[in-house]
Amino acid sequence: MPSSRNRPPFDADERTQLLGWLDMQRAIIRWKCEGLLEADAHRAVLPSSPLMSVAGIVSHLRWAENLWFEIVLLGRPAVGPQFDEEVEDADMRVDGIPLSQLLAEYDRQCAVSDEIIAAHSLDDVGKHPDFPVSAASLRWIMFHMIEETARHAGHMDAIRELVDGEKGYY
Question: What are the contacts of 91-94 at 24+ separation with CB within 8 A?
């Protein structure tokens, strides 16, 4: 389900622009994984962030999409590794999970998020009773997911350069 790394049209409506920017960042995440050796995908390069690997970021973003669109917006049960109180950063713990599997899970989650986005107004607010952030609108959530995905795309830029010398923005 790879999407374009192109920016949305200047004259597109708000929904098209938001989804276009989010899709572009998602595509950059996938692009940063292309041609990466499995060992390098799981290699952490920052001593203070031992789980910050390309594979860990892909997993984290998959669960972030789930959190914001399914749990916060729709009010579905708060389940997933990010809710494991016994294991810090459980959503980034991916030892033994192939990058191809993590990318397939990310693609499936993005498709679910896209279905949710298509079915709701940008003004709809979250429904989960246990999270104050449920006051956020779909519009706010989309801006947040653009920011979250772009921030981690930047991390992946640096990680790729450190693990195998690959460089490039988009």
Answer: 91/59, 91/60, 91/62, 91/63, 91/64, 92/51, 92/52, 92/53, 92/56, 92/57, 92/59, 92/60, 93/51, 93/56, 93/59, 94/42, 94/53, 94/55, 94/56, 94/58, 94/59
